[in-house]
Amino acid sequence: RRFAECPEAGGKGDEPAMKVRVAEAHEADEILRVTNAAYQVEKFFIDTDRLDAARLGALLAKGVFLAADGMAGCVYVELRGERGYFGPLSVDPSRQGSGTGKLLVKAAEDYARAHGCRFMDLRIVNLREELPAFYRKLGYAETGTEPFPESEPTKLRCHLICMSKEL
Description:
The protein is of the alpha+beta class. The chain is built from four helices and eight strands. The protein is globular and about 40 Å long.
């Protein structure tokens, strides 16, 4: 089942629009590849990969990953009653700047809305200074902060910024 199409994201001229669908279990290695490649940008403050097989398995037990155009990008979505949660949002580095991230956010919102959610939540690390503005442009507002997980040692002090949007 598709949750979003975006003709301006990747489609040029006669090329088809990007399509987003629920990823399947056999795509776990591709989810790990694209997510860890996308999050290389965080190596300045954290040494670990964003996802490993164990963390991916734990996420898949609670939610789904949506994938754009094969695996140009993916996003995790979890349903929590009337609230949806998404993250990590990952776009293959070769496709960043193509609109794939915005398309995946829209697909995550559509997925949550289709399952009865009225709000969407996300968390971002404060050290990624470009992210609050990106999400504000998509309608998200900052709602507070949380400590960065102690289970993930960091090179720099940091915390999480919580953001939400009414769907």
